[in-house]
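ok new one. same drill as before - structure tokens go in, u give me an amino acid for every spot. 289 of them this time. try not to just spam alanines like last time pls lmao
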């Protein structure tokens, strides 16, 4: 199992233990990272600090709602039993009880405050990008993603979903509805700033293992960040209903060592047209063809 808990969430571990019996997934398999598992019952293994905090937050709230639900269920069962017509022939005429009314107002407020404080902390952590090591730009189109590497030669390319393993052009696993012809490559343990926008309608760039989901809005540049601490292949999907082929715009990210990343950048600069060479004249020539 992959439950790496910070000290603060140590008290969550008994529940984790119970849940671990339900989750049949095998996390030792690196191929199982960054994608859904068949019959899986858990969030994807988090590989960024933000995703780990999202994971902890999820279980923290799950425990609270479980306790509340059990408490209310217990009350209902007890009331049905104890105050049935048979056992309670002369019902009480009480309509007010000041103490109970104060309690059932104050306790829920306190519970909400206890949830709100870590929730706001996490929101700010996701929102404020630390000084980035590199920037990539993701542009949503109907129905594929385009990528730019502005600080690595400004090359750009598109990523289309593959229909079958026969279409693979390189040696990588094929996952139905997730694998794309090209890939996003980033170095491990580096802060990656992702600028997200769209060219036509609303899309959303979302990668569960990174705890990242950012709306892609035409005419607006949104920003998110991640720092993956494990190499591997991670998948995401467009998460804003964007039209008839919304399901065919997956995201495939390869987190690799810095050397591998640099080698990929050199290859990609040669392979994909640099934006700097893309003058108005070229556009016109292409259009007139
Ligand atoms: Cu989309």
């Amino acid at each position: 199992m992959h439950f790496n808990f910070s000290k603060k969430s140590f008290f969550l571990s008994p529940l984790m233990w119970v849940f671990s019996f339900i989750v049949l997934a095998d996390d030792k398999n690196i191929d199982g990272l960054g994608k859904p598992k068949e019959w899986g019952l858990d969030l994807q293994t988090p590989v960024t600090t933000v995703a780990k905090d999202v994971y902890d937050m999820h279980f923290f709230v799950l425990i609270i709602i479980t306790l509340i639900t059990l408490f209310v269920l217990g009350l209902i069962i007890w009331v049905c039993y104890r105050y049935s017509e048979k056992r309670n022939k002369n019902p009480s005429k009480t309509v007010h009880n000041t103490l109970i009314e104060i309690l059932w107002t104050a306790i829920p407020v306190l519970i909400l405050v206890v949830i709100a404080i870590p929730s706001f902390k996490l929101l700010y952590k996701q929102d404020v990008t630390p000084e980035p090591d590199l920037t990539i730009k993701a542009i949503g189109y109907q129905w594929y993603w385009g990528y730019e590497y502005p600080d690595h030669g400004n090359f750009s390319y598109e990523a289309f979903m593959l229909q079958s393993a026969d279409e693979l052009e390189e040696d990588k696993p094929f996952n139905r509805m997730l694998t794309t012809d090209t890939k996003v490559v980033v170095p491990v343990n580096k802060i990656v700033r992702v600028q997200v926008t769209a060219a036509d309608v609303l899309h959303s760039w979302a990668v569960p293992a990174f705890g990242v989901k950012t709306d892609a809005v035409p005419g607006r540049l949104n920003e998110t960040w991640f720092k993956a601490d494990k190499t591997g292949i991670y998948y995401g999907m467009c998460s804003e209903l964007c039209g008839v082929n919304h399901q065919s715009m997956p995201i495939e990210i390869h987190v690799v060592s810095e050397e591998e990343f640099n080698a990929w950048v050199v290859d990609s600069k040669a392979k994909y047209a640099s934006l700097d060479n893309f003058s108005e004249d070229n556009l016109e020539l292409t259009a007139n063809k």
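Strands lie at 134-141, 144-149, 155-159, 184-187, 192-198, 203-207, 212-216, 222-226, 232-238, 250-256. and btw The chain has five helices and ten strands.
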